[in-house]
Amino acid sequence: MLGANLDGEAVIPPAWQVDAGTRIAIVRAPLLASAVAMQGQHTKELNSGDRFAFGNNWARFLRDLSDTRIMEATRSLQHMLRVDDLRGKRFLDIGSGSGLFSLAARKLGAVVLSFDYDPESVACTEHLRQMNDLADAEWRVETGSVLDEDYLRTLGTWDVVYSWGVLHHTGKMWDALGSVSPLVAPGGLLFIAIYNDQREVSKWWRWLKRTYNRLPSPLRLPYTVVVMGPLEVLRFVATTARTRNPRAYFKAIGAYAKDKRGMSYWHDLVDWIGGYPFEVASPEAVFEFYRVRGFELLSLKTCGGRWGCNEFVFRRSTASP
Q1: What is the Cα–Cα distance from 309 to 207, expressed in whole angstroms?
Q2: What is the distance between the alpha carbons of residues 44 and 40, in angstroms, rounded to a whole number?
Q3: What domains can you pick out in the chain, each with its CATH number?
Q4: How far, in Å, CA of 90 to CA of 68, rounded?
Q5: Residue 241: CA atoms inside 13 Å, Cβ hemisphere, count?
Q6: How is the beta sheet containing 111-116 ordered, strand by strand?
Q7: Comparing C-alpha atoms, which of 174, 131, 170, 171 is closest to residue 25?
Q8: How far apart are CA 138 and CA 130, in angstroms?
Q9: Is 42 exposed, middle or buried (0-12, 13-18, 19+ CB in 10 A)?
Q10: How far apart, in whole angstroms, are the C-alpha atoms of residue 143 and residue 29?
Q11: pLDDT band at 138 (very low <50, low <70, confident <90, very high)
């Protein structure tokens, strides 16, 4: 978990290419008053059980970050955006989380701005930026909210706006979906992922997620096992029956990083059971929302009607106001 040293600097756990036991002090500028207020609101939401500690989970994920995961994240970005590189492009990462996809965009040559509402996520992203190149002036990391209109007005427009699995955690998903539209330059790309609407099943998941966040911390791991354990058993049985190989389930977990954008199976599972606020939308609803705002759908990757995220890549019309 992130903490602070005696000088008050943010400290995060060991990450990729960091020796075991090492802790990294994040070098950062003094926070603006608005960012301080935002952090206070974030702490209040955590303490009341109204928000999952996403940054805490991302900090743990960074302990397992490897060059292989970074490579898979970079490949997934190239695949969905249908590009070989992002040289000469400006990339805005909204809700940067661990910072992995900001790093991927930077490695593809983009000028990057990352921002997140969660202070621990900001620290994780800043850590990756410093690990990649401490003096890099073409990757900035900030504290900000996609619901803060004053902040968004300072950002201008971007060639690629990226927000994977973030906007449905704001508590005001449709407002957030609308807020990102003006940030995309005419002809630019918007890459988002939004939880699939399963109607009554989604209501059940919302209750389970809210319960997780209102439990005392020591009870959250047992709760995760109780809720997700039976589902994993069913997945094991189904995979074994389909492949006639009891090892296939474990091979799938081992290959998760390659198949799932460089992510971690366990950390994604914790993010799923804990991820709150929680809102959902059907692919059709998201498509129509952006169609009337002058966006053309270029790519769609659904989760097949199951629980999970549907991924969208839109292009903003060059005639957009």
Answers
A1: 18
A2: 6
A3: 3-197+279-316 (3.40.50.150), 200-274 (no CATH)
A4: 25
A5: 6
A6: 139-143, 111-116, 90-94, 158-164, 184-195, 309-316, 295-301
A7: 131
A8: 12
A9: buried
A10: 11
A11: very high
What single-letter amino acid sits at 249? Y
The better pLDDT of the pair 191, 231 is held by 191
Least confident of 71-85, 148-162, 210-224, 241-255: 241-255
CB contact set of 5 (below 8 Å; sequence gap of 6+): 11, 23, 25
Q: Omega of the bond prior to 277 within 30 degrees of 0, cis?
A: yes
Read off the tokens for 79: 């695949």
User: Taking a C-beta distance cutoff of 8 angstroms, is the pair 62, 121 a contact?
Assistant: no
- For residues 90 and 291, what is the distance between their CA atoms, to the nearest angstrom? 23
Whether 264 shows a pLDDT value over 70: the answer reads no
What is the DSSP secondary structure assignment for residue 84, as one 8-state letter?
S
Name the pLDDT band for 35 (thresholds 50, 70, 90): low
Structure token pair of residue 256: 């998760």
Q: What are phi and psi of 165, to 5 degrees?
A: 65, 35
Query: Which pLDDT score is estimated for 242?
Result: 83
The percentage of residues in the chain with a pLDDT greater than 70, rounded to a whole number, is 83
Place of tokens 């060639």: 159
